[in-house]
Design a protein that fits this description.
Elements: E1 5-10, H1 14-27, E2 31-36, H2 39-48, E3 53-56, H3 65-75, E4 81-85, H4 90-99, E5 103-106, H5 111-157, H6 161-174, E6 180-187, E7 192-198, H7 200-203, E8 211-212, H8 217-225, E9 229-231, E10 249-254, E11 259-265, H9 273-332, H10 336-348, E12 355-360, E13 367-372, H11 376-385, H12 390-401, E14 405-407, H13 420-426, E15 430-437, E16 442-450, H14 458-486, E17 488-496, H15 502-510, E18 514-521, E19 526-534, H16 538-543, H17 547-550, E20 554-562, E21 566-574, H18 577-584, E22 588-595, E23 598-606, H19 611-621, E24 625-634, H20 637-649, H21 652-663, H22 675-681, H23 686-709
Helix pairs in contact: 1-5, 2-3, 5-6, 5-9, 6-9, 9-10, 9-14, 10-14, 18-19, 20-23, 21-23, 22-23
């Protein structure tokens, strides 16, 4: 024992007290003895300084040794107290032991007696100090444990996981006196451990941006196994990520599925068992707090979701009422315009929607056809912006996806910067675009403007999407009814400058205007085209036969008639993309004339066909195609019925023979073609062709006169 042992020697004989003190110090260099002569002086000395052991005589005036012992035990029950007396009866020894003396030793002459006394003193003080330190450690542990449990309330009161992590490391640093403390949270998204919190001293030693991927380092090893580990010297561990870390001793405790709590020290093997136990208690409390925070987070999310669903359900019920009203109004409408106006009026006749308008896709770019709830100034701005209007992009996106599209916040969407002032003026932030479709095509797009950010829920979006289908079918129904009554059709005039078009190539080759007189579909992916060249000269006529050999797109070519003003050609070609599109849309080709590399095509389009989709389908194969004019035409019911009846009564061969004769000028006088020419073009014998042609003529005349007689 190297620490100084302070001894108080109490004896009523001053000379003996001085002698005993001197001899004890000689016997053991760590003993520092102080002599006093009375019990009162001893008590006064105890108040003034720390004493490790008292050596006292038994028989003294005023206060005996046992009386002094009794007074000492009142303040310190365990302080070593050795009764060193000249009286050596068994009665005194028994009384001394019963009173609680540490040792009992009789005074005898000789230095060895003081050697024995010094030995008793050192042994008693050593035991006393050990027990005192143990008790102090126990008291300190209990105080720390009590404080640790008190801090649990702070953990439980923390609002977020980040606050809990920070409270845990602060507790480790301040209460447990851990030099280095940090917490790492498991992020399910990245699948890694990320720095969550650390004490101020620790931040200087750790890189907060450092993450630990699966299988990386001691941190991940402890977290994945779910068992805490203590490393007396981290630098000796193979799995240590940074062997040069200032943290030498390291205790890593998992926090369930949330992450880990790390305690470190710059020294080697600096954590004893009580400290490890306290860290485990702190980790358990932290994990419980994190579980509570996670449950509360999930509960808040559930409450928010439930509130959101209730609000959405309320809006949905309101929307369903609006939709029912719209459906009743649409069912009573007799025209497309009336349907579109009814839809817009009913939508804005509520507090739910700011305003609405229907975009017509027959126009390019799409423009408002009906609107409600907004003044004409906004509609004019949409029309004036043309292709640059953000609504046009939204409409195109909706038509391409054939699904409801939503702009969640026009104030945060760069494409809608031109509408920022209008959005603030008219009080909208969410814009909804609903395609008006039936099973065949789109009839337009309904745009609805709503206050607030992202104000349209999925259920309401679905309901409005179904409304769009209802409106689309209603428009289709009234248009079909109108078509049955008026046989209204659309005439489109297109201009195509694409070099892939055969007429453009022919016109460039001969340098003269060329017109397509007619086309006969052979039904075997081949077409017979009758083409007329205007104002030909001898050189042009002489060069025509060579085209059959030079152009792979022409399988057969023949000159049906030659005149001073025109030349009529018959071409057999493979079916082209243009005629495939026209056939799929059931669109008739009225005329096609090529001049100076541009072909003007006139199409006869039924009302049920969406003109925009038709033009886009043609442009996909012939990009240099543009709409030049759009006109509505009306046929008489008699004409329409006659056309249908004629096609119904003739066979395919008869109809083909009649078409070829008409387009080739067979019925003109003088004839521009012969039966032999046409038979060759249709790849049949002349008698067969004439048989089909006469049968077609007979049915045509019969149908005309029979219909007239009725």
């Amino acid at each position: 024992m190297t620490a100084t042992i302070t001894v108080l020697v109490v004896d009523n004989e001053p000379e003996f007290a001085d002698l005993a003190s001197t001899l004890l110090e000689r016997e053991h260099e760590s003993i520092a003895a102080t002599p006093v002569t009375t019990g009162a002086d001893a008590l006064e000395a105890l108040e003034e300084r720390d004493v490790d052991c008292i050596v006292c005589d038994y028989e003294m005036p005023e206060m005996t040794g046992l009386e002094l012992l009794e007074r000492v035990r009142e303040d310190d029950p365990d302080l070593p107290f050795i009764l060193f007396t000249g009286r050596g009866s068994e009665e005194i020894a028994s009384e001394a032991i019963a009173a609680g003396v540490t040792q009992y030793l009789q005074k005898r002459p000789g230095r060895e007696r003081y050697a024995m006394l010094a030995n008793q003193i050192t042994n008693a003080v050593s035991q006393y100090r050990t027990e005192t330190e143990l008790r102090e450690n126990e008291r300190r542990y209990e105080r720390t444990l009590t404080t640790l449990h008190e801090t649990t309330r702070d953990l439980m009161r923390a609002g977020t996981k980040r606050e809990i992590y920070q409270a845990a490391v602060d507790t480790a640093g301040e209460i447990l006196d851990v030099p280095i403390a940090a917490a790492y949270a498991f992020e399910p998204t990245s699948g890694a451990l990320e720095h969550a919190a650390s004490t101020s001293e620790t931040r200087e030693l750790l890189d907060p941006e450092r993450t630990f991927e699966p299988g990386e380092g001691l941190f991940w090893e402890v977290f994945s196994e779910g068992e805490s580990s203590y490393y007396p010297d981290v630098r000796e561990e193979e799995a240590a990520v940074n062997p040069e870390s200032l943290s030498r001793s390291e205790l890593i405790v998992p926090l369930g599925t949330h992450g880990i709590l790390v305690a470190g020290s710059e020294g080697v093997d600096d954590f004893d068992e009580p400290m490890a136990e306290l860290m485990h208690i702190l980790a358990a409390n932290t994990e419980a707090a994190l579980d509570r925070a996670e449950r509360e987070r999930l509960l808040r999310e559930h409450d928010r979701e439930l509130t959101h669903k209730n609000e959405e359900l309320t809006r949905l019920n309101h929307t369903n009422e609006i939709v029912r009203g719209i459906n009743r109004g649409v069912a009573q409408a007799s025209t497309r315009s009336e349907i579109e106006t009814t839809v817009c009026d009913r939508l804005v006749d509520t507090d739910r929607y700011r305003f609405a308008w229907v975009a017509s896709t027959d126009d390019s770019p799409p423009s408002p056809a009906a609107w409600a709830g907004v003044d004409a100034a906004y509609i004019d701005s949409v029309r004036e912006d043309g292709q640059d209007a953000p609504e046009v992009d939204l409409i195109r996106e909706t038509l391409e996806s054939n699904d409801v599209s939503v702009v969640r916040n026009v104030l945060d969407d760069d494409r809608w910067d031109v509408r920022r002032k209008a959005a603030l003026t008219y009080g909208f932030q969410t814009v909804l675009a609903v395609p008006l479709t039936d099973d065949e095509r789109a009839h337009g797009v309904l745009l609805v403007y709503v206050a607030g950010v992202d104000s349209i829920g999925e259920s309401e979006r679905a309901v409005l999407g179904e409304l769009g289908e209802t409106i689309g079918r209603a428009i289709r129904s009234v248009e079909r009814t109108r078509a049955l009554l008026t046989d209204s059709r659309i005439e489109l005039e297109l201009e195509c400058a694409d070099s892939r078009l055969l007429l453009n190539r022919l016109a460039d080759r001969v340098g003269r205007p060329i017109s397509l007189e007619g086309v006969v579909d052979r039904g075997d992916d081949h077409l017979v085209q009758f083409v007329r060249i205007s104002d030909p000269d001898e050189a042009i006529i002489d060069s025509i036969p060579s085209l059959e050999e030079r152009w792979a797109s022409i399988e057969a070519l023949s000159v049906l008639s030659e005149g001073d003003e025109t030349v009529l050609l018959e071409l057999t070609v493979a079916e082209t993309p243009l005629f495939e599109v026209l056939s799929s849309y059931e669109v008739g080709l009225t005329s096609a004339t090529a001049r100076d590399g541009v072909t003007t095509i006139v199409l006869d389009v039924p009302q049920r066909v969406e003109t925009r989709a038709l033009i886009e389908a043609i442009s996909d194969d012939y990009p240099e195609t543009a709409l030049h004019a759009r006109r509505e035409t009306t046929q008489t019911r008699t004409d329409g019925r006659f056309d249908a009846e004629l096609e119904r009564h003739l066979t395919d061969r008869q109809f083909e023979a009649l078409q070829a004769a008409h387009y080739s000028g067979f019925f003109q006088w003088p004839r521009e073609s012969t039966g032999e020419n046409l038979a060759d073009a249709l790849d049949v014998s002349p008698p067969t062709y004439h048989y089909h042609l006469r049968a077609a003529q007979r049915k045509l005349v019969s149908l005309a006169f029979d219909d007239h007689s009725r």
